[in-house]
Amino acid sequence: MAALKSQGVGIYLSDDASPEVFTEVPDVVSISGPDGSASEIDVTALDSTAKEFLMGLPDEGTVSLDLIWGGETSNTQQVALRTARANQTQKNFQIKLTDSPQSTYQFNAYVTGWSLTAGVDDAVKATVTLRITGAVSVV
Questions:
Q1: What percent of the chain has pLDDT over 70?
Q2: Of 55, 59, 9, whose CA–CA distance to 29 is shortest?
Q3: pTM of the model
Q4: pLDDT tens digits, 41-84
Q5: Residue 135 in 3-state DSSP?
Q6: Sequence ranges of the domains in the chain
Q7: Calpha distance 113→30 (Å, rounded)
Q8: In the structure, what pLDDT confidence band is assigned to residue 24 with cuts at 50, 70 and 90?
Q9: What is the CA radius of gyration of the chain?
Q10: Which of 6, 60, 83, 103 has the smallest C-beta neighbourhood within 10 Å, fewest atoms?
């Protein structure tokens, strides 16, 4: 069975410069998504013998990140995510896997969710939700 290790997978945030440079968001514990889908367009007619469909536009969905929050002065990438949510700024992201050659998924997204959690005998963590706009490409 072929499998990839999760250890070493990372999500990277663009600096929005030209040429564009991506820097890893540190202390990410888990990444979930993209979790996209597509609309179903019902084209069933009265003479159909079963339901018939066409596929609508793909919706690439969301990406969710769980990370260990270092605070407002800890690192620029984590703070940039929170700031992008507050300013409703679209950002460019990459998710890099651990295969060789390395698979890289690139997409634009808005940071739509930012939630802090803290508990006894635990680190302060943040859950970040990215809403993808447009297509996800493999670069």
A1: 100
A2: 9
A3: 0.91
A4: 999 999 999 999 999 999 999 999 999 998 887 789 999 999 99
A5: strand
A6: 11-38+54-138
A7: 15
A8: very high
A9: 19
A10: 6
